[in-house]
Design a protein that fits this description.
two-stranded antiparallel ribbon, transmembrane, Probable membrane transporter protein
């Protein structure tokens, strides 16, 4: 029963992760911890093993969705590889810092992080465009299916610093980095939503390889339940990437706001209540 429930959660996590460029950890990590604490269906999970399970799933979620996005032409390969260069060392640092959390502190900080991200997305439409970084970068243009044209770009040094922070938080919380990177790409660098999500999933896949290796070395992978989770994540990733192509850009941003806010409030409440 426990393996089946985790597979279902992984399908949902992979679907939303690929749809929004999150990687799926925002769903799987709190979901796995809840199942572990509320039932006896699986062996108890620590925050470290839940994160280890999440990064294993994100390898396959990221792979499935990245392949799909590659076929659609939405992936910015140059940007994705540059962000990976900064995120990879950050993922190693984050995996080591993850060992300092207990369940309550992990849920609290995890929730605060998601609420901050949701808030950024909620106020984005009311903020004046932040052109500071785009004006100092080599730009490119993209026109989506609705005819909207975007001009976007990023200074290399800022991109590396940002991606290092993203990688560190990804290693700490098992969220793949997309939940952090997508808002930054949208707000700071003016990426088109579909390009931001697709490029984020490339980063999720590449950084998850490094992340998984780090958590393996630290003994954080619960191997007994890995298989159903990676199968579910792969299926969900393919479904999410396929669905994303059919949605308008504004719809993606709305869904992203709602998912982050709900999951953030839930995790903070769990962390405070204990």
């Amino acid at each position: 029963m426990g393996a089946f429930i985790l597979a279902v959660i992984a399908i949902c996590a992979g679907f939303l992760g690929a749809l929004l460029g999150l990687g799926g950890g925002v769903i799987l990590v709190p979901g796995a911890l809840f199942i572990s604490s509320a039932t006896d269906w699986i062996s108890p999970l620590t925050p470290q093993s839940a994160v280890g399970l999440s990064v294993m799933m994100m390898i396959f979620t990221g792979l499935a969705s990245t392949i799909s996005y590659m076929k659609s032409g939405f992936v910015d390969y140059k940007a994705g590889l540059l962000f990976f260069a900064g995120a990879a060392p950050g993922a190693i640092v984050g995996a080591m810092l993850n060992g300092r959390f207990n369940v309550d502190s992990f849920n609290l900080f995890f929730g605060v992080l998601l609420i901050v991200l949701a808030t950024i997305m909620l106020i984005r439409d009311y903020m004046k465009p932040i052109d500071f970084f785009v004006k100092r970068a080599k730009t490119r243009t993209f026109t989506d299916k609705q005819g909207a044209t975007y001009t976007y770009g990023y200074p290399i040094s800022i991109a590396l610093i940002l991606s290092f922070v993203v990688g560190t938080l990804s290693g700490m919380f098992g969220i793949g980095g997309g939940a952090l990177l997508v808002p930054a790409l949208l707000v700071l660098f003016h990426f088109p939503p579909h390009i931001a999500v697709a490029t984020s999933m490339l980063l999720v896949f590449l950084s998850s390889l490094v992340n998984a290796g780090s958590h393996m070395a630290l003994g954080n992978i619960p191997w007994a339940v890995v298989l159903p989770v990676i199968i579910g994540g792969y299926i969900g990733g393919k479904l999410g990437a396929s669905t994303s192509k059919k949605l308008q850009s504004k719809t993606l941003v709305v869904i992203l706001r709602i998912v982050l806010l709900i999951m953030g409030i839930r995790s903070v409440m769990i962390g405070l209540i204990g």
